[in-house]
Design goal:
Structural class: alpha+beta
CATH architecture: 3-Layer(aba) Sandwich
Largest sheet: 4 strands, antiparallel
Shape: globular
Number of strands: 6
Mean pLDDT: 95
Low-confidence stretches: none
CATH topology: NADH Oxidase
Number of helices: 7
CATH superfamily: NADH Oxidase
Order of helices and strands: HHEHHEEEHEHEH
Strand content: 15-25%
């Protein structure tokens, strides 16, 4: 990493070292490695242990690869085409309460926890991840034949580090780990909540 990150309080290094680059090298990823990322996601916490997250993926060069690239807006497709795998993050918006299907208000929260576990496991194994919100949600829902009670959150590009010179110049300048807001802007004690 060219720009060191520092934390204000002691935390494990993996949280600072993980970042979301766009320069990827499309190295092949074997099934055991990729499935280990999903295995980490499987053990994420979830309300009532419902586990509403779902993942759909395509590996570079597979029969579905071009379809997955088409799920992305043009900007993201330009760099994500060099990923080793693309993963759609989905969650089920309902759950069963007895025999009745009811809304699950924590589905997105739980899917976010699962995606975070996936990203951290990939990082621990030397792989990079970059989550993208710039996707064609309706196109994904139609292609994957998702029922109405499933929602698409985004896509994750997974790969090894590539040469940033393959990126447009304005993205090359951004190809460094980003900082974060200070804690006092995102955390409050008691009832002193401010936006």
């Amino acid at each position: 990493m060219s720009q060191p990150r520092t934390s204000d309080y002691p935390i494990d290094a993996q949280f600072i070292q993980r970042w979301s680059p766009r320069a990827l090298a499309n190295d092949p990823i074997d099934d055991e490695t990729l499935l280990s990322f999903f295995e980490a996601a499987r053990w994420s916490p979830s309300a009532y242990n419902i586990q509403p997250w779902r993942f759909a993926y395509s590996k570079h060069g597979s029969a579905s690869w071009d379809s997955y690239l088409d799920f992305l807006i043009e900007f993201n497709r330009g760099w994500a085409q060099h990923a080793s795998a693309l993963v759609v993050v989905i969650s089920k918006t309902t759950s069963l309460n007895g025999d009745k299907e009811v809304a699950n208000p924590s589905h997105a929260f739980d899917a976010g926890a699962a995606w975070a576990n996936l990203a951290l496991q990939a990082h621990l194994k030397g792989w990079l991840t970059h989550c993208m919100g710039g996707v064609h949600h309706d196109k994904i829902k139609a292609a994957l034949n998702l029922p109405d009670n499933y929602v698409v959150h985004g896509m994750v590009a997974i790969g090894k580090a590539g040469d940033k010179s393959q990126l447009p110049e304005f993205l090359q300048q951004k190809e460094i780990p980003s900082g974060r807001l200070p804690l006092e802007q995102t955390v409050v004690e008691g009832l002193n909540f401010t936006l």
